[in-house]
From TrEMBL:
Entry protein name: Calpain catalytic domain-containing protein
A molecular function GO annotation: calcium-dependent cysteine-type endopeptidase activity
Domain Calpain catalytic: start-end pairs: 15-101
Annotated Pfam families: Peptidase_C2
Any one biological process term the GO annotation gives: proteolysis
Length: 107
């Protein structure tokens, strides 16, 4: 699986995201809203080198590293409609770590 974070020819788009089998529509809808209204803010969540996502808890910036080997091509996780673009999965994976370390905590 490729680890391209963003599409090379356009900004993130709300139609890029396909929800997987997890019941985390609250997160997917939030990402779609950001992609639609503020794609640059969405881009600011991810640092590519090293692959890290940034979230805030009670005003404190929290950095969540995302290991490349964790990027899987499984239908239970969200994914992009654009082949080889990984930003939806990267953010979903990092948010699961931020929210307690497991995908089970998101549902």
């Amino acid at each position: 699986m490729s680890t391209n974070v963003w599409s090379l020819d356009r900004e993130p788009y709300h139609g890029d995201i396909v929800q997987g089998g997890l019941g985390n529509c609250f997160l997917i809808a939030s990402l779609q809203s950001l992609a639609s209204c503020q794609p640059q803010l969405l881009r600011s969540i991810i640092s590519v080198s090293p692959l890290t996502c940034f979230f805030y808890r009670q005003g404190q910036r929290i950095e969540i590293p995302v290991a490349i080997e964790l990027l899987k091509d499984e239908i239970q996780y969200c994914r992009s409609t654009v082949p080889d673009v990984q930003w939806p999965y990267i953010i979903e994976r990092a948010y699961s770590e931020f929210y307690g370390g497991r995908y089970d905590n998101l549902i």
